[in-house]
Amino acid sequence: MMPITLPTGTGMRARHFTPLVLALALAGTALVAQTVRGWVSYARTPSSFSETRTSLETEMAGLALSIPGNMLRHGLPPAGADRASDSLDLTVLWPSMEGYSQANADAFADFGDTSPVMSVALRADDGQMDTNTRFEKVWLSLAAGDALPGPAGLALLPLVADSSAGTDFVAHRSENGQLFAARCFTPRDRNLAATCQRTLRSETGLVVSYRFRQAHLADWRKLDGAMRGLVASFVRGN
Fold this sequence. Notes:
eight-stranded antiparallel beta sheet; two-stranded antiparallel sheet
């Protein structure tokens, strides 16, 4: 049994306590709602895939990048548009890491729980926490219970959330001194897929966030390497 230490008095008067609790509850509800909106937006955001082989030549964080047009979530920008980018949204298939083509159009149209479609966001490093850091500094303190066993040796740590919307948890494991952590959400709405998201810093200095179906958690040992390889392939001169 864990030892329990009673808190010391705060000096707060009773009439101030109820408004404080209400404010904290509202803040927590807003955070949960924001998280759920993010998952739903990801599942429902329209895309305009193109099979063009023309690459987008752009710059990000001082790097010259060449990105195949058939990976761009919303297609190539119009001619004459500013080619410098703060962020880029891409879509590829797992595990091939290929962009859109007529040959794999059916796979890109798959919105089910086993879909191979992965949403990838590239951005310059703005100093925000990656998933591993957020897990260690934030999510561990928000655990709603003990971790449960997951696929391929992962542990699934439940987070405090609005259970009426779905189940929020972190899939994680440390192996050979390396931590893998991905935040996952299983919506109660069966029209929405169960997905996970992970953010990491690549060797190029760019930050990459990728979302994938929970069905692919068993491939967690391969995911980061594939993403790092994809980002490295975009850097001109590599």
